[in-house]
Structures are given as structure tokens and as C-alpha cells.
Amino acid sequence: MAYLKLYRDKLLHNYNFLKTRFDARNIEWGIVTKLFCGNKQMLKEVIDLGIYEIHDSRISNLKAAKEVSEDIQTVYIKPPPKKIIEDIIRWADVSFDSDISTIRMLSEEAVRQNKTHKIIIMIEMGDLREGVVRDDLIDFYEQVFNLPNISVTGLGTNLNCLHGVMPNTDKLIQLTLYKQIIELKFNKKIPWISGGTSVTVPLLLRHEIPSGINHFRVGEALYFGLDLFTNKTIEGMEDSVMELYTQIIELHEKPLVPSGELGLNPQGSRATIDESLYGKKSHRAILDIGYLDIDPKYLIPINEDLEIVDASSDMLVVNVGENERNYKVGDFVRFRLRYMGALGLMNSAYIDKVVA
After folding, report:
1. Is 34 tagged catalytic?
2. What is the mean pLDDT of residues 314-343?
3. Are residues 350 and 264 in the same domain?
4. Beta bridge partners of 196
5. Going along 113-233, which residue ranges are E strands?
């Protein structure tokens, strides 16, 4: 059976790398744990790093985090669905918000539960996902400040997650200016400017973060050490905190070109034939994983000589050439992962999860 392995030492290395740089700038930060899909073993590894704050987009995952550590601050990082307002107040100490009717419901439920619920108002800064339109911001805040049991702990923005709009110094400076305007207008203190995510980490490393940005929420950079500007590993960080181990279930020398009339495969695509490969063969291995668990495009072979051919629902086919590594049935083949691939694996009941 295939399994996903998290390396505790590499996770700690990346955590300390980021913590050192955040501490130097007096930046508070939380770890985004939606990748772990509520897996308590993985959540415990993150919480044991010493982090105070966990971010997630599923309320069941925040509940799991509270069950691991009741002292952890939980942050719900998308506008809350009205259907689960009661659970939001129960399990999320903080939520990201951009709809006034939802915040009114949060206020009413917080009163019922005798809690003060913190909110971060998200501002639309160009990526066109969640966020209050900037022209409406003052009116929006004026309504929020009058609600009982609601504490505005910050304002924030989200970039790169929908249309790929990248953060830059100008956008982040605009965010800090909105904070100043709101504080002066309403004589209210807003502690956080949450302008930082994994995509913003390279700006931090290049000393291009405005001084007013004092809060980050980080996931992908911690787990994969990835610079989302260059799509390369950040110097000094580990890129294989998590790896996939897949077992070979068949290995034969076979032709490189299929034979017979070609139709659409189950993925809806049709194979193209490279006529120069007619008559040539390769050792071809079948691995015990497929599209049911991960899209092959999110797999990065540790062995660079290995070539991913394609997959079916639960089998992955790879070419191993002349098999110079002497692979055999029963051997495990390792892959590094891209974020969306690891997310699918963590969400798959068919993949074991282990910590080393």
C-alpha cells in the first residue's frame, strides 16, 4: 500500500527558518493546516513546533486542532457559511470575513455563547476572490464596529489563490494605509495587518515587506520550501518535508507505443503516437496509486531518470528505461510532491500517513 511520510526533522528545519525571519521583523504568524485534512497525528506535529495559531478552511479541522490542544488559537480562513455559524463561534477563535450579514449572525451567536469572536476583514486587492470592495470599506467598518461580541483584530488580503495576482510592495502599502484611515476615522486600534501568505515570503526574504505588515499565515512555504515567484526551492529550506512512497506491483519490458485502435481513455484524452518510438521498448513499472489519490502532474520523481507515463484510477505507469537501478516488484518508488498533490493524498482514505 502506498503511504505518505512526513519528516519531523525537515518540518522543524523549515519552521525555524521562517520563525527566525519573522521574529527579526516582529511579525506574528500562524500555520495553515488545511493540507492535513484534520489528521490529528499531523496536527500534533505542527502544534508541537511551538506555534500559537492554526489556520484552516474547514471547521472540522479546527475542531480536531482544539482537541489536540485546547490552548491553540484557531482561525477560519474563508468567509463562514451561514449554515455553520454556531460551529464557527464554538471552534474558531477568529474568522476571515467580508459579508456584513454574516458578521451580524456571528455577533448574535457569540452573544448566545457568551464569547467574543475576533474577525479579520478581508479587502479585495485585485485577485478577485474574497474581500470587501475598497470603495465600500469605510461604510462596512462603521457597521461592524457597532456589533456586540465582535472584535476587529485585523484586516487582510489574499493574493495569488485564484487568478494568480502576485503581491508587491505597492499593494501591501495600500493595505497598511487602509488600516491608518480606519483607525483615524473610528478611533479604533486594529492589531493585525494580515498581508502575508506563502506567496509573500520571498518579499520578506528580499526585505520588501512594508513595516506595517505584521501578520502572516503560512502553509506551502513551510511544507515545501517553495518560492512561488520562481517556482524553485527557497535557499536554505527543505523541499521534501513530505514524500510519497509507492510500491511496484508489476515490472516488465514492454513496447513504448501502444498497439490497436486508439479511443478516449477514462480521463477523456486520446494518446498521441511518436512514430520514432515504433519497435522500441522500455522497462515499465506499475505503481499502486492512481488518479483516485493524486493527479500525476503533482508528482516529482526522486529518481530523475524515471518517466511518468500516465495513470488510471488506481494504477500509475512509469518508464524506468534499462532499469539500471534494478527495480523489482515489491520495491518502493519515492516522489516529492506539489501542494495540491499532497492535499489529495492527505484526503485519500487509501493512503497511509506516517511520521518519521
Report:
1. yes
2. 96
3. yes
4. 216
5. 117-122, 150-156, 192-196, 215-218, 226-227, 232-233
Strands, E, within 73-113: which ranges?
Answer: 73-76, 94-97
Closest to 335 in 3D by CA, of 232, 224, 198? 224
Grade residue 313 by pLDDT with cuts at 50, 70 and 90: very high
Residue pLDDT, tens place only, 266-290: 777 777 777 666 767 889 999 999 9
What's the CA gap between 346 and 344, in Å, rounded?
A: 6
Instruction: Looking at the structure, tell me whether residues 158 and 59 fall in a common domain.
Output: yes
List 5, 10, 19, 34, catalytic entry: 34
What's the CA gap between 268 and 248, in Å, rounded?
26
Q: What is the spatial distance between Cα 43 and Cα 49, in angstroms, rounded to a whole number?
A: 10
Beta bridge partners of 3: 245, 352
Is 333 domain-assigned? yes
**CA nearest to 131, candidates 170, 168, 178, 85:** 178
- Mean pLDDT in the chain? 94
Give the pLDDT of residue 282: 87
pLDDT band at residue 93 under the 50/70/90 scheme: very high
Q: Are residues 227 and 303 in the same domain?
A: no
**In terms of domains, do 202 and 279 share one?**
no
Please determine, for residue 188, whether its predicted confidence score (pLDDT) is greater than 90.
yes
Residue 227: give its domain's CATH number: 3.20.20.10
Claim to verify: residue 112 and residue 256 sit in the same structural domain: no
Identify the sign of the CA torsion 100, 105, 109, 114: positive
b/e code 201-227 from CB counts within 10 Å (16+ = b): bbbbbeeebbeebbbbbbbbbbbbbbb
Residue 289 CA: distances (Å) to CA of 241, 331, 334: 20, 14, 12
d(CA 191, CA 327): 56
